[in-house]
Amino acid sequence: MTKRKDEETVKNLLKEASKNPIEEFYKTEVLARRGYDQYCLNFLEENESILEQIKSIKSKPRTNSYKTHTKDDAKQTLDKYKLRPRRGEEHLVLNMFVKRINCSDVFGTILDYQVPLKDKEEDTFGKIDFISEKDGELWFVEIKADYNKESILKAIFEIETYSKIVCKKKLLEDFGKDKTMPIKKVVAIFENSLAAKQCEDKKIRELAKNFKIKIVILRLTHKLIQVNTI
Questions:
Q1: pTM beyond cutoff 0.90
Q2: For residue 14, what are the contacts with CB-CB under 8 A and spacing of at least 6?
């Protein structure tokens, strides 16, 4: 069993991570670990400049298109892997993309999923869970399944970082959208999940607000329902 880290250790890990390229900060393990959110929040309060550095991340070039999937791709993936119905994050997004799960009231129209950010093989950037269009805005969404035990802090830093790394001009061109279309950053979680419980913390809500990130709390019945927003 892994020994629990004390606050000083967590803060030191975050301090060391902040010395690396700031676009890698979201990968810091303790940001994702449950039970360390208060230590992380205390560190961020004491080191607000890190938030400003993340907001100032420069976009990275991408030669290939950001648009990489079709509905046929998604259907083939669903048929091939037969992921856990209704629960797996990938399974959920694929079903929303091919409209087997109605999510239009919450997310509008999903344009693509697992949207790549890296341009070269050696790049280490992740992928945006999915991009959708709603009310004249392009939504970048990081979604966490109801059973996910990661701290919401990782998702918040992840989507903020991805929104900076992406070359917005090229992405809008690739999806055939007007170059002036605004982008909204969204973290989508499920009610009664660990992440939803964390959102009761004022400091979590203030962090999301600082980054201008919308947190959407969901319920899945016969369709996807939005039960709250932060």
A1: yes
A2: 28, 30, 31, 40, 43, 44, 47
